## 1
Amino acid sequence: MDNIIIYCKSCVTPSSRPRIVFNKNGICNACLNSNQKDNINWEDRLHELNIILDEHRANNGSWDCIIPWSGGKDSSAIAYKMKYEHQMNPLLVTFSPMLPNKIGNENREALINAGFDHIYFRPNQKVHRILAKRFFIERGNPKVAWDAGINVIPVKIALKMNIKLLFYAEHGESEYGGKVLSEESMRSRDFTEVIEHQIGDDPRNWEADNVSLRDLNPYIYPNNKELNDAGIKAYYYSYFRKWSMFENFKYVKKKYNFNENPRGRTLGTFQGFDSLDDKFDDLYYYMQYIKFGFGRCIRDTSRFIQNNHMERKEALELCHKYDGEFPEYYFDEILKYLDLSKDDFYSIVDKHRNDEIWKKTNEEWELKYPLPKK
Ligand SMILES: [Zn+2]
């Protein structure tokens, strides 16, 4: 990271976002990539998608693809399109949120009622808590093991049930600013990239006195040879159809009874329709703010700007109002889950404050390079 943090001149993402790159005009690669979308021939991409689907569509009534599914607007939009627009027979697979909440459960139930088969996997909570606490302390991220689980379980089920096709939502690195390894990495999912960028290391390394190899089974990815031999392929839907989280929201809203955060907006941001099924999410995004100096409102408004749903001026106002809000709503439940006292919690948070980003003045933490007013 450079010593001075700059913010993209088109969206509001800072240069402290891991792996983001700015051009000489101060525009981030997520914005540049989103401009590229206008040059893509989406008819050709749809044709490409249809070829893949035709190859896999089952004629004998069995499931022909797996959608790793949270119940949120993006994976639900894909599931709905697969079934009702592409005439596939998808099986939805969910790795349970860490602390599921009511709205998430209701939204999952609503899509299942719209005509879907579903497998819900809930991992051993004794081990999941140990890992959540360990990674919150070590990496300031309680969701590392969860991230591994959501990647692993759908693929393990695909192997076991001999379903050769998986569809993921979007390629995060190209959509939101990051490192794009190749054109192919935006199309089909490369798990090495996921381990490196999302999880950080191989979960086989997580064995410890209180965690055995057997305990880690939900987090350990099948080996590549096994997947190749079985002919399993995983793709990103965002490569084939133009991606917008807001369009996905409008789509699910129209198709079935998908509901937003009953409190109107989610803590730390202006919107109430994205990433709303896990009580841990407020803490997760707060820790991004602590570690990288930007929270959920910067993330969300940047995506809105990139998809032409918001002006930068409005984004700046919203971010000054909401970015970095403390996760107070589920705070007590989170402390209980992590088995931490308030004092422990605050000292872990402060340990993850990067001193290139934060300074302490009058006993208050302040960003050294805050988002400009305009
Ligand atoms: Zn940008």
## 2
Amino acid sequence: MKDVTLHNGVKMPVIALGLWKNLIPTSVHKSVKAAIDAGYTHFDSAQIYKNERFLKTGLKKAGVNREDVFITTKIYNSNQPDGKFQPSLEKSLKNLGTDYVELLLLHFPVTETRARAWELMEEAYEEGKAKAIGVSNYTIRHLEELLAACKVKPMVNQVELHVFLQQPELVEYCQKNDIVVEAYSPIAHGKGLDNLVLKEIAEKHGKSPAQIMIRWCIEIGTVPLPKSTHADRIQQNIDVFDFKLDKDDMAKIAELEEGLRTCWDPSDVE
Ligand SMILES: NC(=O)c1ccc[n+]([C@@H]2O[C@H](COP(=O)([O-])OP(=O)(O)OC[C@H]3O[C@@H](n4cnc5c(N)ncnc54)[C@H](OP(=O)(O)O)[C@@H]3O)[C@@H](O)[C@H]2O)c1
């Protein structure tokens, strides 16, 4: 698996298996095994997904060494306050069966608590509980505020990003500031797979529309986190390194922008 290097030198694999809405233990175990067999080493979990424990067991059942995988979890909104943050992180580490995660994210820019929560993220980083720290669902405005105040710059911003929500200004801002963008819902949560433009480009490359959407995230320098519970799709979603989208494909995809949000919209969060 190819890597991208974060600004502190940590290497992050360029595709992760997304784990949102994968809630049944056996389903998580099977997805993780299928992912490991397909060559994934990067797993995107979160406190609110309620599957950190199942990820731990899935990795154990798949026989993988801890040092060979990259695990992300996220501090949920209600756990951002002082006094809640630390025990919630300890619980996540216990659930995951590890002393540290490779990447710890603040799940959302909660107005009242995000400034102090970032200081707690920095403490967790300094204590070695996270090899890298970052944010999620941050707009440029939230990042400007954070960059003006932080001791440790976020290494990652995980945001909704796909061909129907391209966010070029946010991607450019992050890249200029050495913040790697992770593309969540890279298949637009399964929407638009019957889009005619995507189908045409897919046919041209002998790929599926989902693979075109995932490859587009890579072409623009972001790290996609496709989720699936099906072994064949998990395999398909990582099989995107033997072709490239050309100028014509990229121009056609640029036209697909429609501001489609399938998850949170942080634009109006003060
Ligand atoms: N930070 C945040 O706030 C945040 C928010 C949302 C998501 N995320 C992260 O991003 C990950 C991915 O986002 P997502 O789960 O919203 O959506 P997604 O990966 O864009 O799409 C997942 C949907 O597409 C289907 N699918 C997957 N591969 C396919 C393929 N090759 N062909 C056809 N259909 C396919 C899946 O169905 P099956 O499972 O049935 O195969 C599922 O219904 C999450 O799991 C999570 O890790 C983060």
